[in-house]
Structure formats: structure tokens, C-alpha cells
Amino acid sequence: MEVKEAISKAKDNNQIAFNFLLDTYWNDVYAFQLKRTLNENDAEDITIQTFSRAFDKIDTYNEDYKFKTWLITISKNIHIDLVRKQKNTINNTSKDNEDHYFDIIDNSPTPEDKIITEQNLANLLRDIKKLKPHYQEVINLRYFRELSYKEISEELNEPINNVKVKLLRAKKLLAAIITKS
């Protein structure tokens, strides 16, 4: 399959085409993010978000440009957004020209927040149980047991790219279940 053909099929929601594009460009996007973040986990998370966003918006792709360039641009924008969010959590203020200090925002949960979190977790677990068992398993391994993609790949005895695609699909299906309820 060629890239142009895969893009065309992906626009028609062909999962094989999505897998082909993911396999073809994963290393490029991941390497780009690894250079930017200098952190393997952050690079992996941003790369997954990149493909998720790209596949959601594949209809907006302009074929006058290279697909790789489009993916890298999406990836760069996701990283910039994350950096901005991180900067907003710590306010850098100064008393005068010489003394600088960091005013750290207190993000510790209140008792009400803890109750809400417990209720949300219960609802989330209920929604996860609505997924097919293999999707439940991959979500459990990644987010509850906090295994890396490599560890999940070894646990399930599947290629790492299959694990990434399965996790991506599981998150999309879970998001659809959550928005319905």
C-alpha cells in the first residue's frame, strides 16, 4: 500500500490504512518528540495524541503537503500546548528586581474533591467494563498497572504497534461511551 492510497482509505475509516500510516510514521513522530522532550514517556504520549488527533481530522489533510510534515506540525502544536499548560501551573512572580520566587499553586484536593474523584472513578470503572475484554485489559495494564508500552507488549505477547493501536481504539471507544452517558 502506498501512502496516498492509505490516506484515501483512512478518510473512509479503513482501519488497515490507519495501521499502515501509524506503522509508517510512528518512528518519525516519536523521534521528533524525543528530541524535543528528552523524555521517552512524554514523547510516546505526545506521539499517540498526535496520531489520535490526525486520524480524527484526516478529512482536513491537504494533499498538497507531505503527510509527514502534517503529522509533525500536529505533534509540535500538541507539545507547545502541553508546555503552556505546565507553565500556567506555576506562576513566576517577583517582589522586586532582585528577589524572585515561585508561587506554587496548591492543587491538593479538598474533601469535596476527593468524594467527586471517587464517584468519577466508580463511573469510569463502570464505563470501562462496557468495553470488550481485550480493550479493558490494555487500559488496565496502561493506566491502572502503569506499565510501559514495551511491558504491555511483552505481557500480551503482541507487537508494540498493535498495543498502541489497541490502546488508541480503546480510548476512543471509552470516550464515546462516556459522552453517551
From TrEMBL:
A GO term for molecular function: sigma factor activity
Keyword terms of this UniProt record: Sigma factor, Transcription, Transcription regulation
Gene3D superfamilies: 1.10.1740.10, Winged helix-like DNA-binding domain superfamily/Winged helix DNA-binding domain
Domain RNA polymerase sigma factor 70 region 4 type: 126-174
UniProt-listed SUPFAM superfamilies: Sigma2 domain of RNA polymerase sigma factors, Sigma3 and sigma4 domains of RNA polymerase sigma factors
Residue span, RNA polymerase sigma-70 region domain: 23-88
Pfam families, A to Z: Sigma70_r2, Sigma70_r4_2
GO biological process, alphabetically ordered: DNA-templated transcription initiation
Family named by the database record: Belongs to the sigma-70 factor family. ECF subfamily.
PANTHER family named in the record: RNA POLYMERASE ECF-TYPE SIGMA FACTO, RNA POLYMERASE SIGMA FACTOR
Protein's recorded name: RNA polymerase sigma-70 factor
Organism from which the protein derives: Winogradskyella psychrotolerans RS-3
Top-level taxonomy: Bacteria, Pseudomonadati, Bacteroidota, Flavobacteriia, Flavobacteriales
